[in-house]
Amino acid sequence: MKFNIAVIPGDGVGPEVVEQAKKALDAVAEAYNHIFIYKEAQLGANAIDATGGPLPKETIEICKSADAILFGAVGDPKYDNDPSAKIRPEQGLLNLRRELDLYCNVRPVKAYDNLISNSPLKREVIKNSDFVIYRELTGGIYFGEKTLSEDKQTAHDVSSYTVKEISRVTHLAFQAAQKRKKKLTLVDKANVLETSRLWRKTVSEIAKEYKDVELEYLFVDNAAMKMILNPTHFDVILTENLFGDMISDVASSLCGSIGLLASSSIGAENGLFEPIHGSYSQAKGKDIANPLASILSAAMLLQYLGLHEEADAIERAVDKSLALGITTQDIKRKMQKSTTTSKVGDFVAD
Ligand code: GGG
């Protein structure tokens, strides 16, 4: 079969890790007789340098006409250190999600058995951890009005949610729970936030349509603690944009490295696949960044295209690289030598 894939390498280590994901896709194309046609596009700091803005129109067009989008990372420390910067690279990614209405971000988390010793947590606590975070991606405080008063003494970020925005991601999360261990945890801060109370009300109404799924509510602070102390408690976690961003970094501590967590961002018409990590600019060009989250994102892209066997092949190759210790320095075990980004990519492709 033939597929058009938009490729957005982005900033920092994005291009290096995306290159490894493409190697895996090319290996799949050869082994299973598919054709992947890549079209590259700019987004983020690189796009600002080239065009003056973080999301060129051409990038939106390329993404809209593609069957799926493979993305790397966005961000550049030169903007982080300049609070007065009016244009920011991250705005490119947020605007793309909004433009394509990619409202549902799916982040699977599992503790790989042979990496458990890398985690700062105890083996018996994290063994068998396997859950998935459903993060609402196009609403909440990330997209609300932002203001800074003229005297620069007061700032506002408005968080707002509609029932419609909450409902559509909630249905997808319940449907995922039905195919898993039939448990859904809504993570919110309903003791403080009005938006969280609307989430609870909406989700509890929708739960009536999914009677086979157990629903529980947890405050985000409690959920973060539970994730560290008792991660096997979770099956499907549903949460809003900001909390989802935060708790998935907490979750990465279970895996041993944030360099292992992949994600998909799904809308009605499009799907974008990216590692959850950012641009890690200190490592740019050094061939040391972990490419596995990007490679596993490519596997999620194949699932989205309906190529399940092909996606499994990539996942098995990743498992093998971990089992054999062919890994970058972030997940190197004691007495073991690490290898480079590109060598991990070559191994998985082989
Ligand atoms: N690959 C994910 C990435 O580049 N993250 C950087 C970032 O700032 N993302 C904002 C977000 O995911 O909401």
UniProtKB/TrEMBL annotation:
A GO MF label: magnesium ion binding
Site description Important for catalysis, residues in chain: 142, 189
GO CC annotation: cytosol
EC number: 1.1.1.85
Domain of life: Bacteria
InterPro entries, sorted: IsoCit/isopropylmalate_DH_CS (IPR019818), IsoPropMal-DH-like_dom (IPR024084), Isopropylmalate_DH (IPR004429)
Main location: cytoplasm
Annotated substrate binding sites: 97, 107, 135, 221
Cofactor(s) of this protein: Mn(2+); Mg(2+)
GO terms (BP aspect): L-leucine biosynthetic process
Domain Isopropylmalate dehydrogenase-like positions: 4-348
UniProt entry keywords in alphabetical sequence: Amino-acid biosynthesis, Branched-chain amino acid biosynthesis, Cytoplasm, Leucine biosynthesis, Magnesium, Manganese, Metal-binding, NAD, Oxidoreductase
Cell compartment(s), UniProt: Cytoplasm
Catalytic activity: (2R,3S)-3-isopropylmalate + NAD(+) = 4-methyl-2-oxopentanoate + CO2 + NADH
Alphabetical list of Gene3D superfamilies matching this protein: Isopropylmalate Dehydrogenase
Key word Amino-acid biosynthesis present: yes
Subunit structure: Homodimer.
Protein name, as recorded: 3-isopropylmalate dehydrogenase
Organism: Polaribacter dokdonensis DSW-5
